[in-house]
Write a structure and sequence with these properties.
By secondary structure, this protein is an alpha/beta fold. The protein is built from 9 helices and 6 strands; from the N terminus they run H-H-H-E-H-H-E-H-E-H-E-E-E-H-H.
Length: 277
């Protein structure tokens, strides 16, 4: 039987750090944590448990529908509420297919909308992290919408979907007769990013036929990831090119890095607007 160390001996055990521990300041990844004897230092172990708990909480978190609706109305957006075919969180996690389609009541709500023929509709879905939606949607749209409005985009109602997955945007865009749909969804939480927002753009989606290869994705939108300003500039570029070239997905690349003048201007405009606000 292995010898058990006394608690006071364990508490006094020194932490040995690797020579590359200075690299930790460049990343949230768990690198160069060091060791105490043959195990992790206590602080690192406790931080891991806390991050794991935050990730689990994000999966089971709920959208703050009232606050989100208020913030979107303040941005002059019309808001519709919808529910996927998944009745609750357990069913959503166990049956991914039900999260990809609307329930009957929500389908009727979309079908009865008087105005159609939009250039673009936004779908806001909780996905696997409603925490990401609650924290990031309002500030991201605040940066994005002025450029879309200036460019003359006809934006339809913003549809807020509970228990929704990415593909549910295909059905919504089809029912609203929208040319392009952007699904803003809470991404699967990581141990360093329980609040990561993803944006999925699809041109002329067709329910049941459109595949993931037909979408463009911007991932990790949050203050400690892709900034709102950077994400807005990239999404504006993809939207503009998608409409101009009538496509999305693998045939449409984010080439903002190859167009420094155009991207810099978009970023500069957004930064100036933020300073004014």
């Amino acid at each position: 039987m292995a010898e058990q160390l006394e608690p006071e001996i364990v508490n006094q055990m020194p932490v040995t750090l690797p020579p590359w521990s200075g690299l930790r300041r460049f990343t949230d990844a768990r690198i160069a944590l060091g060791r105490a004897g043959i195990g992790l230092p206590t602080d690192a172990h406790l931080e891991f448990q806390l991050a794991h708990a935050r990730a689990r909480d994000a999966v089971y978190s709920n959208m703050d529908v009232a606050a989100l609706t208020e913030s979107m109305i303040a941005l002059d957006l019309t808001v519709l509420r919808a529910q996927s075919a998944a009745m609750n969180r357990r069913e959503y996690l166990m049956r991914p297919d039900k999260g990809r389609r609307l329930n009957d009541e929500s389908r009727l709500t979309m079908d009865r909308q008087p105005g159609t023929g939009y250039d673009l509709v936004f779908v806001v879905a909780d996905g696997l992290s409603a925490t990401a939606i609650n924290q990031n949607i309002a500030p991201f749209l605040t940066v994005l919408l002025p450029d879309l409005n200036s460019a003359g985009w006809r934006i339809g109602p913003t549809v807020m979907v509970e228990q929704g997955r990415v593909a549910i945007g295909d059905e919504i865009a089809h029912l609203l007769n929208a040319e392009i749909v952007v699904v803003m969804i809470g991404e699967r939480p990581g141990l360093s990013s329980p609040d990561s927002l993803g944006c999925y753009l699809t041109y002329c989606p067709n329910p049941g036929i459109t595949t993931d290869a037909d979408r463009n994705c911007l991932s990790n939108i949050r203050p400690r990831g892709m900034s709102y300003t950077d994400a807005a500039a990239r999404l504006l570029y993809l939207l503009t090119e998608s409409r101009r070239r009538s496509l999305s997905g693998v045939s449409l690349k984010d080439e903002t890095g190859l167009l420094p003048d155009r991207t810099s201007q978009a970023l500069e405009c957004a930064d100036n607007r933020n300073r004014r606000d």
